[in-house]
Amino acid sequence: MSWLLALPIAIPFVTAVIVYLLRNRALGRWISLAGSLASLAASAALMVAVLRDGVVAAQMGGWPAPFGISLVADYLSAVMVVITAITGLATAVYALGEIEERLERLGYHALFQVLIAGVTGAFLTGDLFNLYVWFEVMLIASFGLLVLGGSKEQLDAGIKYVALNLVSTLVFLSGIGLLYGVTGTLNLADLHGAVAAVEDQALITVIAMMFMVGFGVKAAVFPLFFWLPASYHTPSFAVSAVFAGLLTKVGVYALMRMFTLVFVGDVGFTHEILIWVSALTMLTGVLGAAAQTDFRKILSFHIISQIGYMTLGLALYTPLALMGGVFYLVHHIIVKANLFLVAGVAQKLAGGTDLERIGGLYKSSPLLAALFVVPAFSLAGFPPLSGFWAKFLIVKASIELGEWLIAFVALFVGLLTIFSMTKIWGMAFWKPHPEGIEPTPDRVPARIRVPMMLPIAGLAAMTVLIGFFPEPFVQFAETAAVQLLEPAAYVEAVLGLREARP
Amino acid sequence: MNSIIFSAGARILVALLLVFSVFMLLRGHNLPGGGFIGGLIGAVGFIVYALACGTAEAKAALRVSPEAIAMVGLGIALSAGLAAAPFGEALFTGIWIWVGGDSYATAALKPNTVLVFDVGVYLVVLGSIVSLACAFEEEV
Q: Exposure of A184 by Cβ count < 10 A (0-12 exposed, 13-18 middle, 19+ buried)?
């Protein structure tokens, strides 16, 4: 059982070491791809176990809970691990086309695998300090990927990114210290009971706010999002797709975990703040996007606005809302990563990402245009694509609670999302290229084009699949939401191990 | 930084820091310390050297590129964790071999995977911090 949980983290690490040693040979990139495939297989095996048992837990190093590090997978963790592996595989294939040999020599594949390991670790850990360690692993790997190649623009973005994320981890770490001082434990399952037993609940609320700020920076919620649009448009497209798909979602996941399992003593206060933060996040993100004319910058601002929906699912704190939040999380990772991948192909074909300077993509590559429409309209919540169901659940949950204003904001933001997506459509795909270039696919050799198009098609197919057959996914999200709201099984799975081992 | 006092002092300081980092690494086995803090102190040593004599000199003093050190360290730490597999234990369970005795108290020599793991962590931290610092130092 313990290896089942450890392998999705261990495989990317082992792959990273091997591909670093082989970084000067072509073999390295194929091993990286094989590693991503193996990670996907390991995550699928974990998912099967979770579907069978509900919650799966194990103790690393054989130290019993709550003293050792627990790895726990419930429905939410399992689906996040699988989706991480899928995104990892898609970008690994994409990288075969996009990443130049110069970046490979600098260790691109190794850093990429370490990043995937960090993200997976954050989703699986059941220990607060261990979560901090995974955040640091992600931060170091993502910083390396961000500045890889070392252009001035990238370094400028890298410094902003690291400085603001360090502030967030510092706040997070201080919160951990205070929480440990108050309760004497850092095991999440143990904290569930220990926090509720603390006499001074006001202090717990203060600590909860520190966690909200710390994770809020990671998740890029209002007003802590400014590092994201400053950095996500500079690295290679494969990298920004992974960042856009996964990194902010780790923050959302951590919020979901902490504010359902640990900080539920004063829901009226903490979750009420989250509601307004979510609404403002949605609005500022989408308005910021409206002002941009760069393909990737528009998409970056849309990450922010979409994060608002997910945190809203948590903030409303009903089974339906959390179910919507979980569904949104999964749908959005696929869609957003895909849009960044499309931007990469558009850049290769038309010679840039500044919408003023490109165009004519529809005429020369109808396939790319079709593959852009799927995630773009899914993002905006157009039926019958996956985004429609995600938005539907969230809006329905807010209407059920009588939060009319919030429901209105959610719908209004969806409308403005369509505006931004049609702007990209009109300027990049519809209008003729301003320099009279015909961006036909044969401008890019097939050995680069094919690996770049494959993952886009695959992810678009997944979006359509979720859109047309939402039933199993919605049911899955429902079980995940129930597990989050009633963490007895989670606590039992972790602390039950204590009795099993003397 | 072109200060003679600093670059002369740095040589002594670097030597002290490096010895101290290894001391911390070994001390961490039973007392506060360990691979992480040892690696940090070692990295500070090389960063001081880089500030005094330039990053090129510091990298030459390391002999191997800091990224390679970090990755080899990761490999060592991982193999220490995976060593638990053949014994049927959970990942990262410490495996101990007693030489000249049959328990922790009596054995004369206690080769184990815990120390191997710490050495791996030491190299990871040393390598990644030095490489980060050098990246900034060179570009800015």
A: exposed
Could you list the residue range(s) of the whole structural domain that residue A322 is in? 267-468
The encoded tokens of residue A166 equal: 């360090």
Token digits for B122?
Answer: 């030491």
Query: Residue B135: which of A2, A13, A147 has the nearest Cβ?
Result: A147
Residue B21 CA to residue B44 CA, distance in Å, equals: 9
Residues in B touching A147 (Cβ below 8 Å): 135
- Residue A142, Cα to own-chain centre: how many angstroms? 13
- Asked if B132 and A143 come within 8 Å (Cβ–Cβ), the reply is yes
Q: What is the residue whose two structure tokens read 């990402």?
A: A353
Which residues are CB-contacts of A10 (< 8 A; sequence separation ≥ 6)? A117, B78, B81, B82, B91
Structural domains in chain B (count): 1
ipTM comes to 0.83
Rounded mean pLDDT, A203-216: 93
How sure is the predictor about A501, in pLDDT bands with cuts at 50, 70 and 90?
very low
Neighbours of A234 (CB within 10 A): 21
State CA A403 to chain mean position distance: 27
The tens digit of pLDDT for each residue in A155-199 reads 888 888 888 888 999 999 999 999 999 999 999 999 998 998 888
The domain total for chain A is: 1
| Chain A residue at shortest CA distance from B113 | A61
